[in-house]
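During the reporting period the student researcher (J.K.) took over the structure-prediction task from the postdoctoral fellow and processed the backlog of single-chain submissions. One of the processed entries is reproduced below for the supervisory committee.
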Amino acid sequence: MGDIMDTATLIALVIAILALCGIAFLLVDRYRTRKLRSRFGPEFDRAVAQEGSVRRAKTVLDRREKRVARYQLRELTAEERENLAAEWNQVQQRFVDDPNDAIERAERLVVKAMHLRGYPTSDFESQTADLSVSHPNVLTDYRIAHEIMLQTASGKATTEDLRRAMQHYRNLFQDIASTGWIREEARLAS
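J.K. obtained the following structure tokens:
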């Protein structure tokens, strides 16, 4: 009778330990999900929709973080910020006379600012994925502005569309060209 009791107790103990491990795993997973959702903002939901599951989206976002952590990102110097700001003012002034050209220049200036910061700038999709790590709240701006720029090339964008694109590029440009974001990124990563 004693051996049966000991075996039953052992089985109950193993079941309890497995249940606790399962609960711990779920709690850690929820914490990780909340952290990624907070860090990536709307980009988290976009990744879930694109990947078809939360688990796969978390894997993709984790990979992005690890990839971007290897980049030699840096603050802009005061001179670089001044030069970029002067170029941005020229782009905005250009909008009055040639909105289509101004939008294309705004795109190029955003890419230039990214390059100066240390981001690779090979293609739009890679750029948005990389920016999602440090600048998730302006990715919608970038996507909308870029889409309007593409519509401009085919003559489908209205003047109002171009105005909106310029506003979206401005939001993105200001975020990328601002100071202090690398320190903020380091704080978020820890």
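The committee noted the following: The first helix runs from residue 2 to 40.
J.K. will present the remaining backlog at the next meeting.
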